[in-house]
Design brief:
- This protein folds into 2 domains: 231 residues, no CATH class; 288 residues, no CATH class.
- It is built from 20 helices and no strands.
- The chain is mainly α.
- It starts with a helix and ends with a helix.
- Helix 6 runs parallel beside helix 9 and helix 15 packs parallel to helix 17.
- The longest helix is centred in the first third of the chain and has 36 residues.
- It holds the Pfam family MurJ.
- Keywords: Cell membrane, Cell shape, Membrane, Peptidoglycan synthesis, Transmembrane, Transmembrane helix.
- It is a multi-pass membrane protein.
Length: 526
């Protein structure tokens, strides 16, 4: 599958997944609210398996498994023997971690929060139902990354839709049985806890089963092989050590961030509100950066394995320019639509206005994260997991320092936005350091034209964003129809994005930017 078709497949699947994910979040907000103790308790519990999963996915799988699978695919059996051993090892390892984490639910909730006794108890009950998601997240990531490495991109991008559909149905059942707006902790019963948290876990199971079906359709044997000797565990272990430490640092940062924002739970944006703001941020990140960057990562890995370093440099520059065309306008559009977009995940216009600064703080890092995605994965393509640990250590140290400063100096109602901004600022510095280290590794990156292209895109995105903001202001701003309901927030966000996009494309055409022709050609092909 070519890069264009692969990116289109991932983008379409990711977009459909994100849209259904937004609907899922809207229904969840209707059930438990976005600013309240019960919603924050569920957000903390449901985030626990995701946090541990990040160690598995971002660290071990992305950094270690993909390059290894690319290498063994050239073997006579297509690497099937290796994949069977790898799958077996993954089941055993992730299963063991899941069992331990489930028994440690009370401790984990305490580590990630500063709740009162009643809210802590509710979060623990949610956690017992949510943590088993970890096993299925791990299997989903393992199967999906292996399929990606073999240039089978569609299932991994589309399977999460099953999760969202199951969750939407389950959350609607919850509202039908118990009513919406269940933000008061003392009103919860064991049956309510089971329906809400059990639904979330059932959705993760569904997406994993869908991926397992496509795994077999792809002709890869789904069997177990416990003969792990000779599969290169020593080499993978060395890589995994660094990637594990890298993602472990991220989790340490996440713990400190949670401890700083959880005291705001109840009346101000806290864990749930930050999660919803992050969900909006992840829409352009997933649809653009992951969709375009993932196929490029596979190609960079292939060229790095073949020691075609000139092609690797070409891949880096090309991927950054293609990403830049879309990421710049996405940043401007989402920033202009911050309040309506936040209204989609809040119970009132006042809550939307309170959550919007959190979203804006995250958006500061969207463009640098696109660069970091490519730079970091170039290191992984060369089998270098130690250097990403170094620049992640820099980022983690900055986030920890800035977050602690926020905790000691900022009022409770501003902490969520301040913590998000601290993370973004640290991410920008991390990207600069990572790019410098990559230049030391590969020599001159030949990115002068790329940086100039990104600068031009940024300059054009400014008036585009102002045009979108103008639509928001003309319709009444925070007092207008765009904040009347969740649906009006969604419609308003689309209108603002359309206005920003139209101005951006017009400016690219007016300046005869060559990237516009490339981008439009790619869209037509897709």
């Amino acid at each position: 599958m070519g890069l264009g078709r692969a990116s289109a497949t991932i983008a379409a699947g990711t977009l459909a997944s994100r849209i259904t994910g937004l609907l899922r979040a809207m229904v969840l907000v209707a059930a438990v609210g976005s600013i309240g103790q019960a919603g924050d308790a569920f957000a903390t519990a449901n985030q626990l398996p995701n946090s541990i999963y990040q160690v598995i996915s971002a660290g071990l799988l992305t950094g270690v498994i993909v390059p290894q699978v690319v290498r063994v695919s050239a073997q006579k059996d297509g690497g099937h023997a290796f994949l069977a051993k790898l799958l077996t090892l993954g089941v055993v390892a992730v299963g063991a971690v899941t069992i331990v984490a489930t028994f440690a639910a009370p401790l984990l909730v305490s580590v990630y929060s500063q709740y009162g006794p009643e809210q802590h108890a509710l979060a623990v009950q949610f956690a017992y139902w949510c943590i088993p998601q970890l096993f299925f997240y791990g299997m989903f990531a393992l199967l999906g990354e292996i399929l990606n490495a073999r240039r089978i991109f569609a299932p991994y991008a589309w399977a999460p839709i099953a999760n969202n559909v199951v969750s939407i149905v389950g959350f609607l059942v919850f509202i039908w049985l118990f009513g919406g707006g269940r933000s008061i902790v003392s009103a919860w019963t064991p049956l309510m806890e089971f329906v809400l948290a059990g639904t979330a876990t059932l959705g993760v199971i569904a997406q994993t089963l869908v991926l397992a079906f496509f795994w077999r359709k792809a002709g890869i044997p789904l069997r177990f092989d416990f003969r792990w000797r000779g599969m290169g565990l020593g080499h993978m272990g060395k890589l995994a050590t660094w990637t594990f430490l890298t993602t472990l640092l991220g989790q340490l940062v996440g713990i400190v961030q949670a401890l700083v924002v959880t005291p705001a739970s109840g009346d101000h944006p806290s864990v749930a509100a930050s999660g919803y703001a992050w969900l909006v941020y992840m829409v352009p990140y997933s649809v653009i950066i992951l969709a375009i960057g993932t196929p490029y990562f596979t190609r960079i890995s292939e060229h790095a394995t073949a020691e075609k370093h000139e092609q690797v440099l070409d891949d880096i520059g090309q991927s950054l320019r293609v990403l830049g065309v879309f990421v710049m306008v996405a940043t401007a559009a989402v920033a202009a639509a911050a309040v309506p977009a936040s209204r989609v995940f809040s119970g009132s216009a006042e809550d939307a206005v309170a959550i919007a600064p959190v979203l804006l703080a995250y958006l500061v890092s969207l463009i640098p994260m696109a660069v970091l995605f490519i730079v970091q994965r170039t290191f992984y393509a060369y089998g270098d997991a130690r250097t990403p640990f170094v620049f992640t250590l820099v980022q983690a140290g900055l986030v920890l320092t800035l977050t602690l400063i926020v905790g000691f100096t900022m009022p409770i109602d501003d902490r969520a936005a301040a913590v998000a901004l601290a993370q973004s600022c640290a991410g920008i510095i991390q990207t600069v350091v990572a790019t410098i280290l990559l230049r030391r590794k590969l020599g001159p990156l030949r990115l002068s034209s790329t940086w100039w292209a990104l600068t031009r895109f940024a300059l054009m995105a400014i008036p585009a964003g102002l045009a979108g903001w103008g639509v928001y202001v003309i319709t009444g701003g925070a007092d207008g129809w765009m904040t009347d309901s969740q649906l009006s927030g969604a419609v308003g966000s689309v209108l603002i994005a359309a206005a920003a996009g139209a101005v951006y494309v017009a400016l690219l055409a007016l300046t005869r930017a060559p990237e516009l022709r490339i981008a439009l050609g790619a869209l037509r092909r897709r």
